[in-house]
Amino acid sequence: MKDLYGKALLLDSALTKSTGFTREERERYGLRGLIPYDVASINKQIERVLGSMRCKGTAIEKYIFLNALLERNQRLFYRTMIDHIEEIMPLVYTPTVGEACKEFAHIFRRPQGFYITPEDRGEIATILRNWPEEDIRVIVVTDGERILGLGDLGANGMGISIGKVALYVACAGINPAQCMPVMLDVGTNNVSLREDPLYLGYPYPRISGDVYRSLVDEFVKAVQLRFPYALIQFEDFLTPHAFEFLDRYSGEVRCFNDDIQGTAAVTLAGIYTSCRITRKRFSDLNIMFLGTGSAAGGIAELMVDAFCAEGLSKSQAQQRLWFIDRKGLVTSSNDNIKPRIKPFAHEHVARSFVDAIGDIKPDVLIGATGVAGTFDENIVRKMAAVNERPVIIALSNPTSHTECTAEQAYQWSDGRVIFASGSPFDAVQYNDRLFKSAQGNNAYIFPGIGLGIYASAARVVTQSMFLAAAQVLADIVTEQEIDTGAIYPALTRVRKVSHAIAVAVCGVVIHEGLTDANLPDDLDSYIRSLMYEPDY
After folding, report:
1. Among residues 62, 102, 164, 280, which one is catalytic?
2. 164 classed as catalytic
3. Cα–Cα dist 11/246, whole Å
4. Domain 261-443 belongs to what architecture?
5. N or C: where does the chain have the smaller number of CB atoms within 10 Å of the terminal CB?
């Protein structure tokens, strides 16, 4: 332990055991009289935490309770989350984190991350030294402009960075002392936030153009100086900026964009798994996207790589992918096609959404719109009409923004759909069968990628790492899980998934010569030795 004693030790969130200190420790660290008599095991403390949490009436109240626990006792928070991941993750991250971000300034208790504003220009490298930890390996950064499907939430977007850090720790065992949530608070164009007297952020309109880009550039360069081994995860940036920064930095520094690459890998994994059910060859699939944002564009680009790995040419791969926007099918005759979508704008008669499904007969329909209800009954029934087992993946979150619910998908497809979603849904009873669709959660991918980068000290992050991660995730799904309607493994196995992905990432790093480190032959044991276990 650090040189802390008495009350200071009890109040240190990383070191405290609260009532878990042994008799000997109470004597050694001056704790006698400061805590009740009982020496409570961490399991007994978890029982108390769960009892208190479950008494809360709403998800946001549970979020506040859990956040307070994290501020008070780090190890107890993470042990509780790991041991009860299916119950805790939806409270710590999606869907509850969306509401938490909207209310962030109103429920704020204690600062947990690092804030950078335009007033810090020219001094970012200097102020980064205020962060108390030296060996940072993972940074999650957002500018709050496109939080989930909720839009511009300004500095309230810090809730996203904090939540993603929690997933790195719980799902992949990155030590919390090596993780850093960052908010690039560059203002907000959400007038209601700026006028809120409790708003905590930079209370001005967003900076933009070269002024904005130069601040991001200064931040990235400052990280290289202060934390040279850190991986930067870009999170919830507006689509043009998301792709721009990924293209700008990915060949130079350790970075990736989870909305683009993490979403792509988890979606690809689900499609790989679905082929075990439909008995279709992956290379034969036609895939349709509703939405043309960063998530859909990122998925399409990784799909092209996946198709090419199966022997298709790039042109053939692109021909398998189709896009729908609010006007209908995106074709080569459309105006104002986004640059990343142009390769998928094929020659075809302009058609409505439902008619395009009839024409193209997609095997897989992917929603990445942020707009609730866009997979209506007509769409789902049309997919079921052209497929014996239609694959529908409704990625948008939080739950209020999903393209369709699990119950709707099963009802409208007469129980034939292979369904996954970005938000969690309860099991659905249809006729005599209980379906337990899985959440296509990026937590299956990005923590393992981060662990692999940390373990290998890779200089950059490549698309091939996400291809490898998708294959690992698909391969780990059991036949028993598939029988319940799931195309992803149970969340209870997410640390096993992250470990396996990290091993695969290290394999890619070695194969592509992306590290100067001498990695051991036994990658399995080496990576396991790096994983943080929150115990007393």
Report:
1. 164
2. yes
3. 40
4. 3-Layer(aba) Sandwich (3.40)
5. N
Contact call for residues 67 and 59 (beta carbons, < 8 A) = no
Using an 8 Å Cβ cutoff, are 302 and 340 in contact?
A: no
Q: Which two tokens stand for residue 529?
A: 């030795």
Q: Which CATH superfamily is domain 91-253 in?
A: Malic enzyme, N-terminal domain (3.40.50.10380)
DSSP string computed for 268-335:
HHHHHHHHHHH---GGG--EEEE--SHHHHHHHHHHHHHHHHTT--HHHHHHTEEEEETTEE-BTT-S
115 classed as catalytic:
no
Cis ω before 111 (30° cut-off from 0): no
Span 1-40: which CATH code? Answer: 1.20.1370.30
pTM strictly above 0.70: yes
So what's the pLDDT on residue 424? 87
- The amino acid occupying position 299 is I
CA distances from 66 to 89, 247, 319 (A): 11, 37, 47
Average pLDDT over residues 3-31: 96
Sheet holding 418-421, edge to edge: 328-329, 321-325, 287-290, 364-367, 391-394, 418-421, 438-439
109 CB neighbour count, 10 Å cutoff: 9
| Backbone Cα Rg of the chain | 23
Catalytic residue among 29, 63, 78, 93: 93
Model confidence band, residue 2 (pLDDT cutoffs 50, 70, 90): low
Q: Give Cβ neighbours of residue 342 (< 8 Å, ≥ 6 apart).
A: none
